[in-house]
Design goal:
140 residues, 5 helices, two-stranded antiparallel ribbon, mainly alpha, elongated, 3% strand, 74% helix
């Protein structure tokens, strides 16, 4: 079964190329994380993975609260931190969204920031499935 692809319609009404696929994972970084789980300090890495997965939703809630309060500096700092954590675990698209959110916060653009935050929640759900599936393969 072929994956569903959206058709982009150009200004002249003709179909254009499909949009590029979202690159959710930086495979090199994720492979390094998983290698550390196999070779080096598996207990510490498992704990770090668990903290990342369990803590990220709370970080998104904190960013949302800062946006609601109009505290763009706090939201930008939290976005920056989240972006770094996501990147360290190979969550490429989530990290890129974190950069967009940080920029929106630096510009005090609450509506755009709220939209990106929603995208981040959805992207985290996708990355979580990918990441947990890779972790499960190691623990079998």
């Amino acid at each position: 079964m072929e994956p569903h692809r959206r058709t982009v319609v150009a200004a002249d009404g003709q179909p254009g190329p499909p949009p590029p696929e979202v690159d959710h994972v930086d495979e090199e970084i994720l492979a390094e994380v998983l290698m550390l789980l196999e070779d080096e300090a598996p207990e510490a890495m498992l704990k770090a993975c668990s903290l990342f997965l369990s803590g990220l939703p709370d970080r998104l809630v904190d960013i949302d609260a800062a946006l609601v309060e109009g505290d763009f500096e706090k939201a930008a700092q939290a976005s920056h931190s989240l972006r770094g954590s996501a990147g360290a675990f190979g969550a490429r698209h989530l990290s890129a969204l974190g950069l967009r959110l940080e920029q929106n916060c630096r510009e005090s653009d609450a509506p755009s920031a709220a939209l990106v935050l929603d995208e981040m929640r959805a992207e985290f759900a996708v990355f979580r499935v990918i990441f947990e599936a890779r972790l499960a393969k190691l623990t079998r």
